[in-house]
What does this fold into?
Amino acid sequence: MKLFKVLTMLIATIILPHSALADVAFSGYGSIVAGKTFGRIDDPLNPGQKRDEILTADFYDVGQYDNDIKFTPESVFALQALVDLGHDLKFTAQLVAKGTDDFEPEFDWYYLTYQVNDSWSVMAGRRNIPMYYYSEFSEVGYAYPWMRPPSNLYWWQITQFNGFHANYDFELGDYSNNLTFFYGNENSYDNKEMLFYDELFGGNARSVDEFWSDILGFNWNITGDNFEVRFVYFQNDRDRTTTAQDGTETDSVPFDQQFLGFGGYVNFNQFSFLFDWNHVEYDDDVGTEYPTYLVSLVYNIGDFQPYITYSKADHERTKTAAATKDLEEHYILGYGVRYNFHPSAAFKIQFDKFEEQGEASTGWAYHGDSRTLTLGIDFIF
It folds into this structure.
């Protein structure tokens, strides 16, 4: 990862001072979101104690709402520079500042794109792993009707990687198609989400490092007049190292994981139906599987888009002596309205009900129920 970052930043250092000689376009996006939960519940991890309801709106950055009004869990600002170097070569860099990081800016995307011909293009550098249907623009709130893609689906501790993409555009009948093949690696040192879980379950680690290697897969987008669907498959090796306060390192048993997904949308007159189905499988000793799905209906009436969304996440083990489907399990039922009050900005208000359905005796029912109200403005420029 460091080599990729150094090389790409070196390219940026060379390019940007000479931007006067190149065609540079700036764009960006942002979200200002506030929210809170309501009430208190029995603490699932501390029997006999009570705590505020908590909604984890962003697992990767550990953005959580509780009974106090908060602006930081989901507020974000990003500036993207696209440098046209000529001769079909472009450089993209994206600087992001998130409330969960005290708005400290960080380059999270930087990659080169070369247009080989009318059908083929290749990219090299750092950007999001094309996992779920909304993964590649999950932080661009203006791009979808809800406040966020449901967090109980988009919960991964790794969302970006350094690697290569090869894109092929073609027509098949009346439909536009895009095939993307990708390969890369990600070494996430001091992973925020994994350290959070270590502390949540009573650990005292100094850091948790997560390693995804040989991320290899493809996705296939098919677009028609009133729909788009997307298939995705990838696999990778996964390792994890936990470092205790005294510096002792403990390596988890490595395993392979596979990700399969099918998502998209269909427009029916004034209605839009959105969906995302996914299945994750670990090649570990207990046969871990995570089946998840999302369905949502949006009514488009003028500048308003009232909507309802339901997302379900499950966690199963299929290789244990007594295979169980009653581990981590929950759903989120959300209602809201998007108001497009400006050509480049939208106001949203959303209410979410998080229902814990896991078996408490397994220790996996640790989220707890919650009811959350969020409102905010998403914009692009």
